[in-house]
């Protein structure tokens, strides 16, 4: 009888596991489909806007070319075909990893973006890291003591970060920290005119450490400090707000009240009960901020002459060079959507309630 009960329990457990796996797979496929649709919509919208705003033909041959030259060039570039056919050809090229070529430098867009992406990634990593260092602890303290000094300070910094444009804040930092105080170097890119470290990851700070060059590592920190602080100020308010809200919600939950009633030490409650339960929305907003800044750091990159993909896109737009613009927009959208997808999937795996 006991063996039969045990066998029945195993069968039920297998059924439950299969049901959970089926729900996860359906969720995964559904989210993957949404990801694909979003990327197609972004590519379609961007492609149409760049074609409607102005044909790339004149960026390639100039506005004073003869009619014969224009028609010949149209045929070479495929611009004499319907817009839908041009878009289909563009998607076919994307499937082969071809993002087109720059009309300005004649280099493949894929290679040029690959050269500049590490600069943007390094800047965003430092900016998000700084945001985590101040916004998460301050948000947690604000939740533990509403209307206290942490709550007031965090609210002031958040209002400041939301209200002030990033490019204006960057110019203020340049004027005060470089021009008046001389605390940081001139905003001339990643290392000014100095030679970069030997390439390993493309992130100068990491490469300098790998090469054992501490002096160069400290110099990379001096150059990246002002743009990273600027981005941190303008991107951290959501992190502070979500942290404060998440911790406040957990503090008011019944299981925290029960833990207190049992006399569990406050330190244990904070780190074993509050922190794990408040973490998912905080991780979510941090990941979303990172994904957004990959394409949203454009103005800061321009102000500080930072050679990332944002500066690359702006330079391309100045010359009506559309393939680089399309490439940067698609890359930024892809990174953002993929990060959102991965974080969403992680939350489903960690939180059993979301699987139901």
UniProtKB/TrEMBL annotation:
Keyword match Cell inner membrane: no
Gene Ontology CC terms: plasma membrane
Main localization, broad class: membrane
InterPro entries: BPD_transp_1_N, MetI-like, MetI-like_sf
Organism this protein belongs to: marine metagenome
Pfam families recorded: BPD_transp_1, BPD_transp_1_N
Localization, UniProt: Cell membrane
Protein name: ABC transmembrane type-1 domain-containing protein
GO molecular function, one term: dipeptide transmembrane transporter activity
Membrane topology recorded in Swiss-Prot or TrEMBL: Multi-pass membrane protein
Keyword check for Iron: no
Keywords from the named record: Cell membrane, Membrane, Transmembrane, Transmembrane helix, Transport
TM region positions: 32-53, 123-144, 156-181, 201-218, 282-306, 326-350
Stretches assigned to the ABC transmembrane type-1 domain: 117-347
